[in-house]
Amino acid sequence: MQGGIIRKHLDLLQTKLSALLLFIVIITDSLARAQVNVEPNTAVLNEGAQQDLLCRYGRPITYCRIEIPGETKVFNLSPDWDKTPGFIYNGKGLQAGECGVRIEHVKAINNGQVKCNLGVEGEELSGTIDLVVALRPKQPLVELITKPDRDRYFHEGNKFQARCIVRDGRPVANITWLLDNEPAAKRVGQLEVLASPRENGLELFTAIQDIQWDIAAEDNGRRLVCRSHHQTDPDNAPPQEGAYELLVRYSPLRMPETLVYGLYLEHTVKVNMTIRANPTPVIEWAIDGNVIRQGEQSGRFSAFEPEYLGHDFYNVTLVIAGLTLEDTTKIYTMRATNALGSTDYTVRISSSATPPSAGLEIGAIVGIVVALAVLVLIVLLVLFARATGRWCFAGKTVKMSTNETKTNNSSMQNLY
């Protein structure tokens, strides 16, 4: 009894499921028939390009109307339609459920949503195609967020921040940052996009991106470049870019101890070293407690003003008249000072033709190897002589012969 009830419930459930599946199939088929397929869904192309637009339905259609932005006429299309110059019918025909149009030369005013209306079994169905006519954006602009001083300079170690603005492009432009001609390996923000509708309905887009880092001495004189990339860029022309030249002030940069060698004793010699600073540094030398400022002379020592070499490099010179051996034992301290600070440099001089090495020189290594070889040879010769009883070792190793010993023993026995 209970089993029969369960079977009835299962049969009823199966019937309901079958009806539901049939309903889903009918609805799906109806939706498929009611849908207008378009090709392409979105078209992005440059002005003047050719583009095919197609609307398709699964069954024959009675009429086809297409509306294109910027065109005053509504196109009532059929395979024998040929009324508007620059537009050609596209598709297999109304009986095949297809109609469309080929735009031979797309214009900027055609940007927008193309709409097709199809007559199907007494009703009208619609489909849309997004037609994006690309428009080259304006020249990129580098805008400073961090402001320089009144002389347009930044100071080393300060945080620097700027933004690149590329206005009124369609679609939105991409941005690349460079320092001189190399990619700027700095912190770059997310690309921000702002839409700006126009009176004619042609929406344009502005791209904005930030860059920031702690500015350094080596950034002085470099070009910060914001470069835009867009599909409208000509193949034979570089992309558009904006630039800003960085000016950085910094105290004299530190250097390791400097060694000047190859100087001739009893000659007038020049002790030269190169430093980097911006602005120009003022120089003074300290020699055994005696301070000599640039442009001054003290005894045999003369300090010259720094000579600019370009790119913030300066040549600093100390002249010593009649170099003595004692001069080569002194430590020379040079101090460079500008508006941002002072830096001390240590200089040693030598009359040696080559700078001293941190380790053993080649000649010393060869001498050590030769000495070790000679020592080993001597030890081997001594061991050989000792083993063979030659040279002075012979007298110490001779013993009385065995025969003589035996004879003496026999004589002793006879006496008894």
UniProtKB/TrEMBL annotation:
The lineage of its organism: Eukaryota, Metazoa, Ecdysozoa, Arthropoda, Hexapoda. This is Fasciclin-3 isoform X5. InterPro entries: CD80_C2-set (IPR013162), Ig-like_dom (IPR007110), Ig-like_dom_sf (IPR036179), Ig-like_fold (IPR013783), Ig_I-set (IPR013098), Nectin/Nectin-like (IPR051427). It comes from Glossina fuscipes. Gene3D superfamilies: Immunoglobulins. The keyword Repeat applies. SUPFAM superfamilies: Immunoglobulin. Residues 140-245 form the Ig-like domain. One of its GO terms (biological process) is homophilic cell adhesion via plasma membrane adhesion molecules. It is found in: Membrane.
